[in-house]
Design brief:
By secondary structure, the protein is mostly beta strands. Helix content is 0%, strand content 48%. It has no helices and 7 strands. It has strands at 6-10, 13-15, 19-22, 29-32, 42-50, 53-54, 58-62. The strands form 2 sheets. Strands 1, 2, 5, 6 and 7 form a 5-stranded antiparallel β-sheet that branches. It has a two-stranded antiparallel ribbon with strand order 3-4. It is globular.
Length: 66
């Protein structure tokens, strides 16, 4: 897994992570990404894509900026 084959879906937007690395836990990876400034605060869904494999969705709450 790396930034070339991982994508993150936040709501309806597909985003490319800036950083992906394996975690010390087996089968776990850390995925970091910067949300665009125009992402609307509130409850939404998050999914990860590894190539064509889609993860189950998870709830995500985005808080507004300062």
């Amino acid at each position: 897994a790396d930034t070339g084959n991982i994508r993150v879906q936040v709501g309806s937007r597909i985003l490319k992570p800036g950083y992906v690395c394996p975690s010390p836990r087996s089968g776990v990876h850390r995925v970091d990404l910067q949300l665009p400034e125009d992402v609307t605060p509130g409850a939404t869904e998050l999914r990860l894509y590894f190539g064509n494999v889609e993860s189950p969705s998870h709830s995500l709450v985005i808080h507004g900026g300062h």
